[in-house]
Structure formats: C-alpha cells, structure tokens
Amino acid sequence: MFKVRGLTTMLVLAAVTAASGQERSPDAPMPLSELLTEASHNNSQIAAADYGWQAAKEVPRQVGTLPDPTFTYQQFSVGSPKPFAGYTNSDFSYIGIGASQELPYPGKLRLRGEVAQRDADIKEKERDATSASVADAVKMDYLQLAYLQKTLGILMENRHVLDQLIQDATAHYEVGQGLQAEVLQAQVERTKILREITMHHEQMGQIEAHLKGLLHRDQSSPDIVTEDLSESLLRYTSAELLQMVREHNPQVQIDSSSVGKQDAALTSAKRGSKPDFSLGYMYQNTDRKYRDYYMLTFNVRFPRKARVDAEIAEAAENLAQTKETLDAHLQQQLAQVKQNYVTATSDEELLKEYREGLIPQSDAAYRATLNAYAANRDQFTHVLLYFTNVLTLKLDEAQVLADHETTLAHLETLTGATLR
C-alpha cells in the first residue's frame, strides 16, 4: 500500500509538471497544497495509522463468526488397552466419529461484531486525526519557512541600504562633517543585521530538515522554496467555527466513535447473561453382528450472574467515562477555537495598522531625516535611528503576518474548514 501511495504521488506530481509544460525549477516556489498532498501519500505516520485501520476492519468478521466446529474420532476398547480390543466379541467396543458445534445465544455474535466494528471506526478516525496532525505540522513548517524567507529578504535589502548609508557617513566624516562614532554605530547596526541573517539561515536549515522528514524526502534533496507570505482574511464568524468543531474536529470525532463503541459494549455485556449452547452428534460403529450406536448431545452453559453483573457495571462505567472525556475534549477544542479566533481578528487589525499607519509614517520620517542629513541639516544618528525603526516595524509586521497565518492553519485543523 505504501508503494502504491508513493507511485500515486509521483503520478500526481508528474501530471502537474506536464500541465505546466515544463519541469519545476529548484528555485521555483512550491505551493503548500502540493506539499500537503505529498505528505498525505508519503508520510510514514499516516501509513502506519492506515495499516492499523485496515487491520481493525478484519476483526468484526473474526468475532462475529461461529466458534470453530470440533470433529471427533473415538476408539473404545473392552477387556484390554490394546486398540480394537473387544471389537469383534463385545457390543461395547466401537469406533466413533462425531462433530460438535458451540452455539452462542442469538444476538451475541452480532453484538460482538458491532463492538469490533466500532473499534475499527475509532481506528479510522485516529487515522484521520494523524493525517490532520501531519498536515498541521507541514503547514507550521511551511509558514515558518515562508516567514524566514520573507524576513531574510528584508534583512538583505536593508543591509544593502545600510552599506550605502555607511559610505555616506564615512564620506561626511572624511570631510569633517560627521563623527567617527556615527560611522562606528552604523557598522554595529550592520553587524546586527549580519547576525540576524546568519540566525535565519540556521533556522531555515532546521525547518527544512524537519519538513523533509514529514514529506519522507531525502535530506540531501533540494531545499524547499515557499510562495510569498500573504494575508488570508478570516471569513467565518466565531459561531460558525464553533459549530464546525462539533462536526469535524478530529479529536471530537475519535471521542464520539469511542462513545459508540462503549455503548455497543454495554449492550453486548447485557446480552452476556443469556445462556450459550453446544450441539454434538456421534456415530459409533461396532462389529457387524452388533447394532451401531447413535448419540446426540445438547449442552447448555449458564453464565454466572456475579461475573456478568461485573462486566455490565464495568461497561457502564467505561461508557460514562468516555462521555465525560468527549465533553472535556469538546470544551477544550471550543475554547482553543475561540482563543484563535480572537487572535486572528486582532492580528488583522494590527496588520492594517502596520500597513496604513506605522510603516508608511516611519518610512516618511526616515526619508525626511535622510534628506535633511544630505543637506547637512540633521545628524546621522537620527538617520540611523529612523532606519532601524523602519526595519524593526517591517520585521514586526512580518511576524504578525506569520502569526496570523499560523493561527488560521491551526483553526483549519480544529474545524476541518479551508481558511487559507
């Protein structure tokens, strides 16, 4: 199955390549949707969970089938322990052939099969939850990688700008219009940017390694280039998201299936008080001068009441526990969705403030100060101050954008909705 999945992924990627008319360049951005498809087909955790589900689907037929029949061969000797002793001179010696079958009380096997089927349903939901968890991890890595690539571009651009500012400040200092301390301070700021660039490369390498592990890619394969990080507006209300949690949340689905299983187990335990039966028949052959024997056996097994009552009580307690677990997880997921909703809406307001107010205003102040410095009407330290303010605001805006998209990705996992 895993090889089939891998082949399917290759065919899908090949189809995408053929549709584009050319092979994907290693530097070309890869959409998140393609990585999610690749992970769903290649991730080992998902494959293992799927095998567990496939195995669980075979259990209902095992427990819902009648017990194995028993075939018996007997040889009864008379007067001596030797085989066939007395067979020709005693009508008690015989050769017997028979069969017997256990017959559980009607409905017991069906209920056991239903319990096993509910357990298979849980395995299926667990497979879906594993798939959702892996998809969430892929999204987190992708968004973090997109954030680092975006901010790395900001840092590289500002490094070039700062290099030009350092050249201007050095020229002013050489003609006696500036201070050496100003040049040194600018060089310190440049070193800080270089440190951030180095840290970005380190973090990107770590995330690349983790993401390739999720995709089951070779660690020596080309690095992944993400699409540009952009804002996705949250188009669902809080009430709509909360309702989606009740209907599609992976953990809630698992708990709901567990409640169904425990309910079926309680019904099966109650039916366990009914008696079971066994039916047997044997043909006994003696020497031809004696008459043959025919024996029919019918047995009834009565379960002990104390044991059955304990099983019923255990099943009832397990059912109550599972219902409380479902409610606890539901409340936890609802609270998390509400928290993420508040965070997402707040981040949208912050992004608007950054783009329409803080960054344009700070950039205008920086350019005005730069022009004043060029005309020898302001100090270089002010230029450097406003330069670092603009850089900090751009990096902060990128961080808020990454946080916003990460929050939406978590909401997708919690609700099962497509928000990006």
TrEMBL record:
<keyword id="KW-0732">Signal</keyword>
<dbReference type="Pfam" id="PF02321">
    <property type="entry name" value="OEP"/>
</dbReference>
<dbReference type="GO" id="GO:0015288">
    <property type="term" value="F:porin activity"/>
</dbReference>
<protein>
    <submittedName>
        <fullName>Outer membrane protein TolC</fullName>
    </submittedName>
</protein>
<dbReference type="GO" id="GO:0009279">
    <property type="term" value="C:cell outer membrane"/>
</dbReference>
<keyword id="KW-1134">Transmembrane beta strand</keyword>
<dbReference type="GO" id="GO:0015562">
    <property type="term" value="F:efflux transmembrane transporter activity"/>
</dbReference>
<keyword id="KW-0813">Transport</keyword>
<dbReference type="InterPro" id="IPR051906">
    <property type="entry name" value="TolC-like"/>
</dbReference>
<keyword id="KW-0175">Coiled coil</keyword>
<keyword id="KW-0812">Transmembrane</keyword>
<keyword id="KW-0472">Membrane</keyword>
<feature type="coiled-coil region">
    <location>
        <begin position="305"/>
        <end position="332"/>
    </location>
</feature>
<feature type="signal peptide">
    <location>
        <begin position="1"/>
        <end position="21"/>
    </location>
</feature>
<dbReference type="InterPro" id="IPR003423">
    <property type="entry name" value="OMP_efflux"/>
</dbReference>
<comment type="similarity">
    <text>Belongs to the outer membrane factor (OMF) (TC 1.B.17) family.</text>
</comment>
<keyword id="KW-0998">Cell outer membrane</keyword>
<dbReference type="GO" id="GO:1990281">
    <property type="term" value="C:efflux pump complex"/>
</dbReference>
